# Entry
Amino acid sequence: MSLEGKVAIVTGASRGIGKAMAMGLAAEGAQVVVAARSEESRPMLPGTIHSTVGEIEDAGGKALAVATNVREEDSIRHLVDRTLDEYGAVDVLINNAAIGSYTPFLEMTVKEWDLIMSIDLRAPFIACKAVAPIMIEQGSGSIINISSHAATNIFSSTLSADSEEIALIGQNYGAAKVGLERLTWGLALELGPHNIAVNVLKPLRPVITEGFLAQRPDADVSTWATPADMVKAAKYLAGQDAKGLTGATVTAEELVRRLGL
# Structure
């Protein structure tokens, strides 16, 4: 399905995988709503919703920046309302906004647990609730929930190329991503009769992002992937509805290889 003229919301799109996917969709003709909290660049973590929109527009695409705090239900609903005001539709939702954690379980506070759950699991639930009635009325749609291999694997990173010390990804992050995958499968069944595709997309390997490097600047990322395959897979899934691929947990590299994207 062509993405020309489709309206896509991408959360967490000021940098990293979200930015790359937003730019990829725009390159295919989609009108992209760039959502994140980042309105001002920070020295250690460059990139804003406005800089992403600027790059899309410089490349000839169409995009809208909407400042969004996904921890707040009203902010997510404002994002969707603003999208409708500007473009009159929501064809694609990519729930990409997320944060990680490397706090060991015995040191983790309830506050840290709740923070990860609010962004990585609660926010996608709210966003799906907000766009589903719109997509039902339209008669089609595609929701892509971005997960991680940490959902089904114990993920660690070497602190540096010269170190054998490792850091396990936080149990809160892995648990949230497992929950997101289960939510996706259930939504695919519930929304399928309305011709809405709901899929999980995740990388086979960790992906290098500005956010991770800001957290762990000395990490050895020599075997990590770039966002390129995630972009190709996201463009394919964005073009699906319930008559196509839905209810799937897709790893980007495998999908790209299988379909020759």
Remarks:
- The chain has a mean pLDDT of 91.
- The first helix runs from residue 16 to 27.
- The CA atoms of residues 111 and 117 lie 10 Å apart.
- The chain has one domain: 7-148+170-204+226-259.
